[in-house]
Specification:
Blueprint lengths: L2 E9 L18 H13 E7 H10 L10 H7 L2 E4 L11 E4 L4 H10 L4 E5 L2 H9 L5 E7 L19 E8 L5 E7 L8
Parallel strand pairs: 1-5, 1-6, 2-3, 2-5, 3-4
Antiparallel strand pairs: 6-8, 7-8
Protein name: Dihydrofolate reductase family protein
Pfam families: RibD_C
């Protein structure tokens, strides 16, 4: 059974929607890049929403001098994109999860043998996965920036009452990694 992990870059005030220039995927410090590579090595599948998938597809495969190594990783890993409108994904190792049963398709991906299914960006998809209770871990790279606006990781009104702290790590650029595992709700109904 696979673990579903959401990895997000987030501002100190909780925004994951990039409305400024506080994040550049090719401007990581060596220590942060090493952590990203270690996490990527654990992912044997990547799940993305259509918009993030199209952004990735239009950027990463075109990188000729990719010092990060991310292009090679993204080209190799099986990618699953949730979309009701995307036809041919146009990027190798990519599969479209379409139709109204995409949550069941994600559940089947989780139930399959493997390590981790990574999710990044894809705010609407992340909200749906959180609301469906399918997320096992959150990896948050907290940037020392206050944006003051923008969508957040957790949907308004949604609570995740039990998170278990797995790790806190600081990088040389001031970014902090905070990892949480979700804990099953053990309360039973009367």
């Amino acid at each position: 059974m696979r673990t579903l992990v959401i990895t997000q870059n987030v501002t100190a005030d909780g925004a994951i929607e990039m409305l400024g220039d506080w994040f550049d995927p090719q401007d990581q410090t060596p220590d942060q890049l090493e952590a990203l590579r270690q996490f990527s090595a654990q992912e044997d599948a990547l799940l993305l929403g259509r918009r993030t998938f199209e952004d990735f597809r239009g950027f990463w495969p075109e990188q000729q001098d990719d010092k990060t190594g991310i292009t090679a990783i993204l080209n190799q890993v099986p990618k699953f994109v949730v979309s009701s409108t995307l036809g041919d994904p146009g990027w190798r190792n990519s599969t479209v999860l379409g139709g109204g049963d995409w949550l069941e398709q994600v559940r089947a991906l989780k139930a399959a043998d493997g390590q981790e299914i990574g999710v990044t960006g894809s705010i609407t998809l992340c909200h749906a996965l959180i609301e469906a209770g399918l997320v096992d871990e959150f990896r948050l790279f907290v940037y020392p920036v206050v944006q003051g606006r923008g969508r957040r990781l957790f949907p308004d009104g949604h609570e995740v009452p039990q998170l278990e702290l797995l790790e806190v790590r600081a990088f040389s650029n001031g970014v902090a990694l905070v990892r949480y595992a979700t804990k099953p709700n053990t309360e039973t109904s009367p």
